[in-house]
Amino acid sequence: MTILGRTAQNLFWLSRYIERAENMARLLEVGYRMSLTARREGGPSEHLVSMMQAAEVDEAFNAKYEVADIASVAQFMLFDEDNFSSVRSCLKAARTNARSVRTALTLDMWESLNAAWLEFAQMRPRDVTGPRLQEALQWVKQVSHQFRGALMGTILRDEGYAFATMGGYLERADNTARILDMKYYVLLPRANLVGGDVDIQQWTLILRAASAHRSYRHVYHDRYKAWNIADYLILRSEMPRSLAFCFSNINRTLDMLTEVHGARSDAHMAADEARAMLEGNSMEKIFAYGLHEFLTEFIARNNRVTDALSESYNFY
């Protein structure tokens, strides 16, 4: 028996919102770290604005705030309910979706999510400054890890699992592409900085945002290089936040749905198109095409997978 479209939708978006909360914390962390290292290449606000441009929330921020300083950006990215991608908005939406499908969740999944929301509700924005901002961002990542551990360790490998995991992987692929695309927004006005110390420093911070700065050295045994870093986060299927890893798991999970429903759907075809951008590709081709152009096209194809899932499996 297949699950209802609304249940599939709620499980999909529950997992996606938890992943998005983590990803917003990762983006804010890299924007914050870049702003602390800003010198002649641009002031702190420029890096924070670049981060919001990558997340596509800069227009909403500009409509409400006058200055892009660390305090206002942290407030907007963490606590502002007018920002539908803020950590508060994501945790609230995840909990709302979870309550709608409470019987489809395991006790561990519900308790990890509910505890996260209750703890976050106790945070006061004025206290999350300086070192405490870093602590808050780390807490958001840990909450996401705890929920994901509960999901992977306790839920049945059925349709519910398929929709929940796909939501997470689609959101993660989107975010990894956006973190990489921050390089475009930061360095675009100053081509003379490409390849310099500032360039390498920013690439290193992007690796840190993806929790990949240590594992990178195990794979490449070399200093941080833009070419290798982009390769690691796009094409290396063993790296768990890479685009290739995400779509390997998305396609595998879609195959589970094929077994249940007896046929491939439009979602499979949309995922195949996104994965085709990765399989057999190389950094030589991607950089020749343009990294920003490649990432923009990938994000669009990634979004089409979500649209196709909604249509194929009767999301409301």
Question: What report would you give on this structure?
Answer:
InterPro entries: ATP-dep_Glu-Cys_Ligase-2, DUF403. Helices cover 72% and strands 0% of the residues. The longest helix has 32 residues, at 5-36. Helix 8 runs antiparallel to helix 15. The protein has 316 residues and is mostly helical. The protein has one domain. The two termini are 19 Å apart. It has helices at residues 5-36, 44-55, 58-62, 70-78, 87-100, 107-121, 131-154, 159-187, 197-209, 213-220, 226-234, 243-261, 266-276, 283-289, 291-312.
Brief description of this entry?
Helix content is 72%, strand content 0%. The protein is an all-alpha fold and 316 residues long.
Q: Which characteristics define this entry?
A:
single chain, 316 residues, mainly alpha, 15 helices, 72% helix, globular, DUF403, ATP-dep_Glu-Cys_Ligase-2
Order of SSEs, N→C? HHHHHHHHHHHHHHH
Q: How many H/I helices? A: 15
Poorly predicted runs: 187-194
Distance between the termini: 19 Å
Largest sheet: none
Strand content: under 5%
Secondary structure topology:
Elements: H1 5-36, H2 44-55, H3 58-62, H4 70-78, H5 87-100, H6 107-121, H7 131-154, H8 159-187, H9 197-209, H10 213-220, H11 226-234, H12 243-261, H13 266-276, H14 283-289, H15 291-312
